[in-house]
Amino acid sequence: MSSCARGLTVVVALGVVLSPGLAYAKDWGDKGARGDITEKGSLTDGTATATAGAKITYDQTGGSSRGGSGQMMPVGNWTPPACWYAPKWTADEAAQSRFDGLIDLSPQHDADNADSMREKYIDGKHGPFNTKKGDEGYWWGVYKNPDRMGDAAAMECTEMPFWVATGDEPPTEIANTISPEILAQLAYEQIRIPEATPTLQPEGDKQVVNLHTWVSLDDAAFQPVSVTASVEALGISATTTATPGSLRIEPGTDDALTFPESGECPLNDDGSVGQKRPAGAEGPPPCGVQYLRSTEATGPYAFEGTVTWKVSWTGSSNPEPTDLPSGTFGTAQDVTVREVQSVVR
Fold first, then answer.
1. Residue 2 CB burial class (10 angstroms; 0-12, 13-18, ≥19)
2. How crowded is residue 15: how many other Cβ atoms within 10 Å of its Cβ?
3. pLDDT of 24-34, one tens digit each?
4. Half-sphere exposure of 184 (CA within 13 A, CB side)
5. Whose CA is closest to 311, among 198, 197, 189?
6. Confidence of residue 111 (pLDDT cuts 50, 70, 90)
7. In sequence order, what are the residues at sequence separation of 6 or more whose Cβ sits closer than 8 angstroms to the Cβ of residue 149?
8. CB-based contacts of 112, cutoff 8 Å, min separation 6
9. How far is residue 281 CA from its own chain's centroid?
10. Which of 35, 240, 306, 345 is the right S-S partner for 313, CB 3.0 to 4.6 Å?
């Protein structure tokens, strides 16, 4: 089944917390925070490693079950977060593992740092690593996006582990503490757009110089696609929805005209794009191209149709759609253009 099939669900183990104004569940993590899940991280690959007891579920709806699918690319320089902070250790787990070896109290390495670490994590009034507080909170730590482990941005979350009491919000001065907004951005990355190759009339191997080519895309492949990222144990979720906006056509050569001139073909009222060529049609199409030179010397042109998708999200504490950067997804096909010689007698 295609990854765009309606109702596809993937469960990912990760630590999460509620956005400002919401408190994470008191019993979160009671069963321990060490997981044995294989690190993958993408919607099609399955799961991501994380030492946490809550689960993020990605559920995609919409799109077409026909053919393949691909990842939508954000317009501009925006990307979903490469790292974030979330509950990671109970007090006892932190004391046993010293944050999985993150804390080094060896004075021969860095005496000043060792003293600072001991004061912060060992000599507090609530016992080493707040063990006297028991299950009254969690130590928060860094999670890295499994799909971007080699990205320099994944190294930007540099805060040492910090304690957040049950019912409290994480420190406001620390960026990228997990929230419905972060979930929405992660859901953006999981959206899979159905492949939709525009129909050309005449077909791609039957183009003729100066002949109008009609371009169309049916409404079955041009429907909204949504991914919901949710954490049932915490009662939070975010739904990110991509809605098709227009089809941009690129002839694959400068020796061509596009219709409309901008190359941007808008949606029709029924959700389709362009129009199939009617019998006896004359004049330029509402969406199409006119090649001015044959491919005899160059080889086939790479005609590309790229759909721009408008993206927004809703979720816990955010019922009104909030815009995220638009995304694009395109498909290419080879076009062979012949030159027909007329003979005058």
1. middle
2. 27
3. 333 322 222 22
4. 24
5. 189
6. low
7. none
8. none
9. 42
10. 240
Backbone φ and ψ of 48, nearest 5°: -125, 140
- pLDDT (0 to 100) of residue 227: 96
Reduced to 3 states (helix: H, G, I; strand: E, B; else coil), residue 144 is: strand
Residue 214 burial (10 A CB sphere; 0-12, 13-18, 19+): buried
At 317-342, the pLDDT tens digits run: 899 999 999 999 999 999 999 998 65
3-state secondary structure of 71: strand
Q: How many CB atoms lie within 10 A of CB 54?
A: 24
Strands (E), 218-300: 225-231, 236-250, 256-259, 264-266, 273-274, 288-291
Paired tokens of 70: 């691909």
Place of tokens 């009104």: 320
Strand partners, 85: 142, 177
pLDDT(146) > 80: yes
Cβ proximity of 291 and 209 under 8 Å: yes
Cβ-contact 63, 71 below 8 angstroms: no
Backbone dihedral angles phi then psi of residue 217, each to the nearest 5 degrees: -140, 125
Q: H helices within the chain, ranges in order? A: 91-101, 107-117, 180-190
What's the farthest any 2 CA atoms get from each other in the chain? 105
Q: Which pLDDT value is given to residue 99?
A: 87
* pLDDT grade for 100, boundaries at 50, 70 and 90: confident
